Each structure stands twice: as structure tokens, then as C-alpha cells.
């Protein structure tokens, strides 16, 4: 079975390409390189620079490579940018995904796994958050993902495409063999930013310590990118076996505060981190922790890198390897 990976030159997509290739799948990689890094994709994997919104080109790729399944990671990913430039998000994430789906239906693709996000829940008052929680996104990024989930459900019902929407919580860490990690783009994610600060390559501040959480800083569910990608392979197998229309959280169900992350970075780096308290970042929910019971119980997902120190150590090792 050939699997097409969109957004393959990005952080998560490149890890998915590695995992698929490691598992013996034939892979074709697509990315428009708007935010991706070509050299994160192994040279042996066929790569096409293309925009997912280019339906004729995507159709040709799907047919030429006899693609049966798609892992769809391509998209615009910054919450802050989505508030400043919402049309970019509705165009790239919603309209782009619709064009890709049209090409998939036309080419007879059987299944597609979509990168959704905890941002579809907005600022929920329940923790951990089950998949049945209300969708109430508070920014255009989250709204664009919720709209694409709905598109998938409608397209699946009408055309028989099997689909899964995986709602990722906070993805972090790097390939244990350091073949990939976070590379391009603006450095806003906590673990990457704190690790870069520990290496003297970025400034760092804690965005507020007056939240209603145990230590006052925001709590998130950090999931190692390798475990996240393993969930995709698990779900691909389930879809191939006949499942359809799956919506699943991907997180560990354990929360870590910003301060917990700072301490983990200090342990990994072996020295203190300068971590002044800054202002709150607009739009940050206090706590986002996944209820991932369904993925574990019904699909046998067994994470291997749940320890925060392991996640942070791999992120630090990757940044060291990339150099300053
Ligand atoms: N990183 C996280 O914590 C996180 C959390 C929840 C969901 N997600 C989702 O996971 C997916 C991957 O995120 P990431 O962190 O790897 O981001 P990333 O920016 O590293 O990767 C996205 C890739 O998509 C490519 N791309 C963007 N628009 C495209 C288009 N129109 N056509 C072709 N390629 C295009 C970019 O060049 C980039 O390589 C995204 O859909 C994101 O919304 C990420
Ligand atoms: O330098 C920094 C960077 C981040 N933070 C804090 O660390 C926490 C985590 O922030 P991230 O930017 O790492 O992650 P988010 O929780 O904001 O966002 C993540 O989860 C979202 C779901 O709500 C989306 O899916 C998004 O794509 C994904 O990156 C937040 O409280 C943030 O304010 C800091 O204190 N200092």
C-alpha cells in the first residue's frame, strides 16, 4: 500500500515519513515548502513540491503512485497568525483540505488521517477532555480544524472515504535517532523555546503565573512526536481493517505546567534556566489535558516516551545536533 504524506517536510510529517518507511510502506511525500525543510525527508523517498490546493497535480500524484491512504499534515499552524490573518487559515486549512479531498475521492483513495488539534475544544472547563466534549474553538486556527473535521465527516458519508481525525495535544520531542525534529518556522512552542534558551540561542519568559492551576502556570499534555506518529500507523491499520469515521484524542492524559517543563529543561541541560515571569499570552487556556482512553483501549496505542524528561532530552539533543 502506498501512503501519501502531505506536509512531509514539516516537523510531524517528516517523522511520519520515517515511521512509514521504517515499517516497510511505500511512501510519497508532498510539501509546498512554505514552512518545511526538504532535507528532513530521506533522499530515497519520492518527493513532490506541490500545494495541496492544486487539485489536478494532487490527482496526478495519487494516480501515478497508486496511493491508497493519505496522512494529511499540511496546513498553517500558528494560533496568533490565525487571529491576524484568518483568511490564510480558511484558505489553506479548509479550502486546501477540501481540494485534497476532492482529488482523493476522484482517485479512489480509501482512507485519510487528518491532523486535528486540541484547539477545537477552545478553553474547556473539563479535564481530562473526552472526544465528546463540545467543539468551541476560540481562534481561527481551531475553527479551521473543526471545519475540516466536519468536511471529512460529510465527504466520508457521501463517498465512502474512510477517515480519522486525530486531535493532537502538545506535540514535542524529536526522533530518538535524531533524523528529524522541529526545524523551520517561528519558535513559539514552549519546549523548543526553552531548550533553545538553555543553549543560549533564544530569550525565554514564562507567559503568566496567575492561572487557576497548581503552580499558576498553564498546564498542557505534552506528547512525544514518535508516539504521536505511531498512533497514525495504528489508525491506518484500523481504517484498512474496515473502521471509518474515527475521532480520537492523542495525548497521554497527564498534565505538565510551564514550570515543570522549565525544571525538566534544567535537568536535561545541567544548569539553571533564566525564566522570568512575563505577561499572559492572549488566548492561552489554563489547562488542556487529553482523555485518550479510546485510543489506548480500542486501538491498543501504547506510548513509549511518556516521561517529560525523555521528551525534553530528545528536543535538546536535536537542537544541539542542528547547531546554532
Ligand atoms: N505541532 C503541534 O503541536 C501540533 C498540534 C496540533 C495539531 N498540529 C497539526 O499537525 C500538522 C503538522 O504540524 P507541524 O507541527 O508538523 O507543522 P509544520 O509547519 O512543521 O508542518 C506543516 C507542513 O505543511 C506544509 N504546508 C503548509 N501548507 C501547505 C500546502 N498548502 N500544501 C503543501 N504543503 C503545505 C509546510 O511547508 C510544512 O512543511 C498541522 O496540520 C498542524 O495543524 C500540530
Ligand atoms: O516561550 C514560551 C512559550 C510558551 N509558553 C507557554 O507554554 C504553554 C504551551 O505553549 P505552546 O506554544 O508550546 O503550545 P500551545 O498550548 O499554545 O499550542 C499547542 O496546542 C494548541 C492546542 O490548543 C494547538 O494545537 C497548537 O498548534 C499547539 O502548538 C502556554 O501556556 C504558553 O503560554 C511560555 O510560557 N513561554
UniProtKB/TrEMBL annotation:
<keyword id="KW-0520">NAD</keyword>
<dbReference type="InterPro" id="IPR005886">
    <property type="entry name" value="UDP_G4E"/>
</dbReference>
<comment type="subunit">
    <text>Homodimer.</text>
</comment>
<keyword id="KW-0413">Isomerase</keyword>
<comment type="similarity">
    <text>Belongs to the NAD(P)-dependent epimerase/dehydratase family.</text>
</comment>
<keyword id="KW-0119">Carbohydrate metabolism</keyword>
<feature type="domain" description="NAD-dependent epimerase/dehydratase">
    <location>
        <begin position="3"/>
        <end position="251"/>
    </location>
</feature>
<comment type="pathway">
    <text>Carbohydrate metabolism; galactose metabolism.</text>
</comment>
<dbReference type="InterPro" id="IPR036291">
    <property type="entry name" value="NAD(P)-bd_dom_sf"/>
</dbReference>
<dbReference type="GO" id="GO:0003978">
    <property type="term" value="F:UDP-glucose 4-epimerase activity"/>
</dbReference>
<dbReference type="Pfam" id="PF01370">
    <property type="entry name" value="Epimerase"/>
</dbReference>
<dbReference type="GO" id="GO:0033499">
    <property type="term" value="P:galactose catabolic process via UDP-galactose, Leloir pathway"/>
</dbReference>
<dbReference type="InterPro" id="IPR001509">
    <property type="entry name" value="Epimerase_deHydtase"/>
</dbReference>
<protein>
    <recommendedName>
        <fullName>UDP-glucose 4-epimerase</fullName>
        <ecNumber>5.1.3.2</ecNumber>
    </recommendedName>
</protein>
